[in-house]
Specification:
It is built from 5 helices and 10 strands, in the order αβαβββαβαβββαββ. It has 158 residues and is of the alpha/beta class.
Length: 158
């Protein structure tokens, strides 16, 4: 599944979007930024979280940190990161390639307002070597995401 499901997602919903396969690991923010030649902040990382009895995905800029207090206030409970096996089972994507596109299970998606600091961002595309370039608003529109303010940046950490 994974990258194939992402390709099918874009073929159906945004055929103008091109998947960028770097041929090298983009599994971490640092690796993705190096491979794409952009600042780490422009990588749109996707966090897989359990919030109470539900699982959600949060897309945030690469240098942002989830604020437990902000997340609890916005999402209704303290978030916990999912384990790798659960992430892959629910999203269909391996850790390092998790994205909000072509999901194995329908999951609510949230975009942190930190993404709006950039004209375009680079979320993964279902594999540890692939990504796409989108405007933050298009990312949110394509995934039906809700905008939230649940992250902090290193210089504004709690």
């Amino acid at each position: 599944m994974s990258e194939d499901s992402v390709r099918a997602f874009f073929a159906a919903h945004a055929p103008d979007v091109t998947i960028i396969d770097q041929g090298v690991s983009t599994a971490t923010v640092v690796e993705a930024a190096q491979a794409l030649g952009v600042a780490p902040a422009r990588i749109a990382k996707t966090l897989s979280l359990r919030v109470g009895d539900r699982v959600v995905l949060v897309c945030a800029r690469g240098d942002a940190r989830l604020s437990n207090g902000k997340a609890k206030a916005a999402l209704g409970a303290k978030p916990r990161m999912l384990g790798a096996h659960e992430v892959e089972a629910l999203t269909g994507h391996p850790v390092g390639g998790v994205c909000p596109f072509g999901l194995a299970s329908p999951l609510p998606v949230y975009c942190d307002v930190s993404l709006r600091d950039f004209a375009t961002v680079f979320p993964a595309a279902g594999s540890r070597t692939a990504s796409v370039e989108l405007t933050p608003d298009r990312l949110a529109t394509l995934t039906g995401a809700t905008w939230v303010d649940i992250c902090t940046l290193a210089d504004t950490a709690e």
